[in-house]
Design brief:
The chain is built from 11 helices and 10 strands. By secondary structure, the protein is an alpha+beta fold. It has 2 domains: 114 residues, Roll (CBS-domain); 150 residues, Heat Shock Protein 90 (2-Layer Sandwich). A 5-stranded antiparallel β-sheet has the order 6-7-8-10-9, covered by helices on one side. Strands 3-4-5 form a 3-stranded mixed β-sheet. A two-stranded antiparallel ribbon has the order 1-2.
Length: 313
């Protein structure tokens, strides 16, 4: 089974980079005690359409917008602190979230911007917009272009030391369940290894994205598992095994958008239900087996010949 389409460099980077790398940190903020009249002056002087509201410890407590100010002004209401008019239920992103999560949230909610906070203390770290994502990706592409020749040189020297009629390489990664701080770490380490081996960038992208999605499923739904990777001259095999609760209906979970992720996982920006579908799009072959109460085994095979000659991005 051939992959549905080539994975572009941009698609690779949104899995590799995180929100903190592209957000802008120089954010104008106001305190809950700032008056609405003062807020009007800030809107005028700074030429902004809204701003986060933070307390004395730097923790995000709300958002106040130009629309909120206009409603207050049109109602001829007496002056009051911002905390009486601000929106308290704020949609946020974490700085350490993969950029793909931010892109998904922009698409799902249709927002123009998100406040970015620290996962531990919830303090405001920055703001991210769609424009920030595009600018960050373009900068990363430019840096990557200049580093490409160095990587190719290193890869050629690695293979000078490998001699044999048949060569296979094996790698194993341990994944801890519910450890969102290290989400994507195994996939990132594998991608770095494959790049150093000089494999085609298109193949590396497909392996990295498929492994990332599989790793996230282990983190979200299980108490942990292992990712075993075999690289031979014709194929890369990724075997993912966990001892989680198992999947009652395998066919259902293969449907795009279907997810059993609990609400607290969705609040973290994960569990959109596209993981297995994304894996299938990257894989030459994919097989999913699961036993309720025992665990799940996912096999992903990516042929090195599949689409390798079409690397143009």
């Amino acid at each position: 089974m051939a992959p549905e389409s080539n994975i572009t460099k941009i698609q690779e980077l949104v899995y590799e980079m995180n929100v903190g790398e592209v957000m802008h940190k120089d954010v104008i903020t106001v305190s809950p005690q700032t008056s609405m009249s003062e807020f009007g002056d800030i809107l005028h002087d700074k030429r902004i359409s809204g701003t986060p509201v933070v307390d004395d410890q730097g923790k995000l407590v709300g958002i106040i917008s130009l629309e909120d100010f206009i409603k207050w002004l049109a109602g001829h209401q007496p002056d009051c602190p911002i905390d009486q008019k601000m929106t308290r239920d704020v949609q946020t992103l974490y700085a350490d979230e993969p950029l793909i999560q931010a892109a998904n949230r922009f698409e799902q909610l249709g927002f123009g911007r998100f406040a970015v906070i620290d996962r531990q203390n919830k303090s405001l770290l920055g703001i991210i917009t769609k424009g920030d994502i595009i600018e960050g990706l373009l900068k990363k592409l430019e840096i990557g272009y200049h580093e490409e020749e160095i990587r190719r040189y290193r890869a050629s020297h690695i293979f000078e030391d490998i001699v044999g009629d048949k060569t296979k390489l094996f790698f194993q990664y341990d994944v801890a369940g519910h450890d969102f701080k290290r989400a994507g770490e195994s996939a990132s380490r594998l991608k770095t290894t494959l790049k150093r081996l000089g494999l085609n960038p298109q193949i590396v992208r497909r392996v990295a994205i498929a492994t990332y999605e599989a790793e996230m499923n282990v983190i979200i739904y299980t108490y942990g598992g292992k990712i075993r990777v075999r690289v031979d001259p014709h194929e890369i095999s990724v075997e993912v095994e966990d001892s989680g609760p198992g999947i009652p209906d395998v066919e259902k979970v293969l449907q795009p958008g279907y997810s059993t992720a609990p609400e607290w996982v969705r609040d973290l920006g994960f569990g959109a239900g596209m993981g297995l579908d994304n894996i299938r799009k990257c894989a030459s072959r994919m097989e999913l087996k699961s036993t309720v109460g025992k665990g799940t085994q996912l096999s992903i095979c990516i042929s090195i010949e599949d689409g390798a000659e079409s690397e143009t991005n």
